[in-house]
Amino acid sequence: MPERTKNASGEMGVGVKNDEQSWWASPSNVASHFGTSGVAVATATGITHPLDVLKVRLQMQLVGQIGPLTGMGQTFVQVVKKEGPRALYLGLTPALTRSVVYGGLRLGLYEPSKNLCELAFESTNIFMKIASGVVSGAFATLLTNPMEVVKVRLQMNRNVHIGAIGELQKIAAKEGVTALWKGVGPAMARAGALTASQMATYDEFKRVLLKWTPLEEGFYLHLASSTIAGLMSTLITAPMDMVKTRLMLQRESKRDGAYKNGFHCAYKVLITEGPRGLYKGGFTIFARLGPQTTITFVLCEKLRELAGLKAI
């Protein structure tokens, strides 16, 4: 949190303590700063990956149609029965690779972005936190979108045995290198909204809970704040996640190949599948994103403590 200090005239102002900026003071501190974020996100991703597979399957059901939707439990049974338990871990390699880079940048860039806002505007209010989250999330996604495309393709195709690298080469050869950035617009919007909702909510609720409850910096404060952040981020990002998935899978689906961009995709879903279509797999998203957010923040805070870094 920013420290209130007195300036030369004796007035109170907002300042940043030197030790709060020390994460960039040396290469080892920089590595610890981004490394703790990447490891935390990768661990959470590995634990919740089966739910991510189910989410993608649910988002791709009844494309262009209105009808009864299969629930998460039934989809889980169908996948395990028809494809075996290993199908729940399709796309795990690119998911973990992406999460280390994406997670490290998404969470790691939030704090320096917030510090820059503080230096520029002498404030770290909720709007500065939201802006910091949007920038860090969107930038991280722009760099790692190819890994997300490969992951989603593998999750939908149980007959692929060429692995992540082979799938990457196949997409580039058949569809062109630019295909690896399919859905990057909605993905950046979703990541910006996700990071902003997660980080700003977590950051702000930590501040509120510290001020108004007996909770102190530690596990229970991190648990409560991250649970609230997980719920908020799900409500905001579920439609963007669905649009992103549809765009990335256009070539894999026979029915959904007419989406021109994210807005066109959202419009077609609303017209042909109804408002509920934008929240297909919504419960699965929360079932995954809620625990993933909690694991990420609780673990990241612990790793930062062990690395000698201040709490988020």
TrEMBL record:
- What Gene Ontology cellular component terms go with this record? membrane
Q: Where in the cell is it found?
A: Membrane
Record keyword Iron present: no
Domain of life, per lineage: Eukaryota
Membrane topology, as annotated, equals:
Multi-pass membrane protein
Solcar repeat residue numbers: 32-116, 124-208, 217-306
Entry-linked Pfam families: Mito_carr
- Which named protein is this? Mitochondrial carrier domain protein
Q: Name the species this protein comes from.
A: Helianthus annuus
In the record, what lineage is assigned to the organism producing the protein?
Eukaryota, Viridiplantae, Streptophyta, Embryophyta, Tracheophyta
